[in-house]
Amino acid sequence: MRIEQASKDDLPAVADVFKACVRDMLDRGIDQWDESYPNPEISRQDCADGSLFVARNDQGGVMGCLTMDENQAAEYAEVPWRHEGKVLMLHRLAVHPDYQRQGAARELMAFAEMYGRDRGYDAIRLDAYSGNHRAIPFYPKIGYEKRGEVHFTRREKPYYCFEKSLH
């Protein structure tokens, strides 16, 4: 697997990853994403901003994706974060169901941490939907600490906020 910044040519494959993940999550009773989010416009903007990254299989196909930037939701202001300084935010981590449970998410997260360290970030933050019973235990297993929760109008259940120092 290799991870690299996405190009415009990757956007159809990224859309396919999101569609497959939405179907899989809904089949599992996870109402985190739907047909309106994440959407192609968000991916186009992430790509244009240089913040969208893709994980490729040995044949070059897109297995998954992740967005990394400094954009924190306004709701994060109330979370008791532990780390100050330059913070890298992770958004929309997705691995196509055909590649799940094979370490792709772990590799994407390791890439994000290396990327953050190499660029002088002090910590990584992210949120995960509390109704996603597969994602919630994943982050503590790889060293992320739950720091609080936020609510977004689109969902009934809260999102748990996680943070990890890069030092």
From TrEMBL:
Q: Which InterPro entries match?
A: Acyl_CoA_acyltransferase (IPR016181), Bact_Acetyltransf (IPR050832), GNAT_dom (IPR000182)
Which superkingdom is the protein from? Answer: Bacteria
Asked if the Swiss-Prot or TrEMBL record annotates the protein with the keyword Cell membrane, the reply is: no
List, for all copies, the residue spans of the domain called N-acetyltransferase: 1-167
Q: Which GO terms describe its molecular function?
A: acyltransferase activity, transferring groups other than amino-acyl groups
Name the UniProt key words of this record, in alphabetical order: Acyltransferase, Transferase
The record ties this protein, via CDD domains, to: NAT_SF (cd04301)
From the Swiss-Prot or TrEMBL record, give the protein name.
GNAT family N-acetyltransferase
Q: What is the lineage of its organism?
A: Bacteria, Bacillati, Bacillota, Bacilli, Bacillales
